[in-house]
């Protein structure tokens, strides 16, 4: 993965998929207060459809990557934040940190009609700045993440129609409680990664 020129995206440039409880933009970034019960999921295992995530999205063209940085500060089951990439109501990908069964985990949900879910514990990321990067190239969306300035970690390679109109940006959800406020410190657009592995 190479470092490319990065362009900051103004918070006002996006459109919310679902309006949050409150949004405050100041010198530190954007603070988003999620509505209780907000979530994104389709059918698998649980049997329900939730499409009330708070995602601030803008176009993600082919050959581009979006990066979102946020403070990982969660306390309740399924508190979550990261990047949301959306084609339509039944085709989307969310990736970020989620508190599950008392532990912060880096994960992704890939939805093509029905959702799947993968998690890897990252308990040492709590209280730190996390950046999630979604890189669109060809027929795939490649998700990487890192904490502070540590090396990028591969999270997921997911199928994504090369010709689809895709929107992406920061998101958060609070499926089980009121009062979750997430501080997002950056939203950036850059070139897609050149390859899946460092030597490419």
TrEMBL record:
InterPro entries: ConA-like_dom_sf, DUF1349. It holds the Pfam family DUF1349. It comes from the Bacteria. Coiled coil: none annotated. This is DUF1349 domain-containing protein. It comes from Frondihabitans peucedani.
């Amino acid at each position: 993965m190479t470092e490319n020129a990065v362009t900051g995206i103004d918070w006002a440039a996006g459109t919310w998929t679902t309006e949050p409880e409150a949004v405050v933009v100041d010198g530190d970034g954007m603070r988003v207060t999620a509505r209780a019960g907000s979530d994104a999921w389709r059918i698998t295992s649980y049997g329900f459809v939730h499409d009330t995530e708070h995602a601030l999205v803008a176009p993600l063209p082919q050959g581009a990557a979006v990066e979102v940085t946020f403070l990982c500060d969660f306390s309740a089951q399924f508190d979550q934040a990261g990047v949301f990439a959306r084609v339509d109501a039944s085709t989307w990908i969310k990736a970020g940190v989620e508190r599950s069964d008392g532990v912060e985990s880096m994960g992704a949900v890939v939805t093509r009609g029905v959702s799947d879910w993968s998690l890897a514990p990252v308990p040492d990321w709590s209280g730190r700045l996390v950046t999630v990067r979604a890189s669109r190239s060809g027929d795939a969306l490649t998700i990487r993440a890192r904490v502070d300035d540590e090396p990028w970690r591969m999270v997921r390679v997911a199928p994504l129609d090369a010709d689809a109109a895709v929107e992406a940006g920061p998101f958060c959800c609070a499926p089980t409680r009121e009062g979750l406020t997430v501080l997002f410190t950056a939203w950036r657009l850059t070139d897609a990664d050149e390859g899946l592995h460092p030597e490419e």
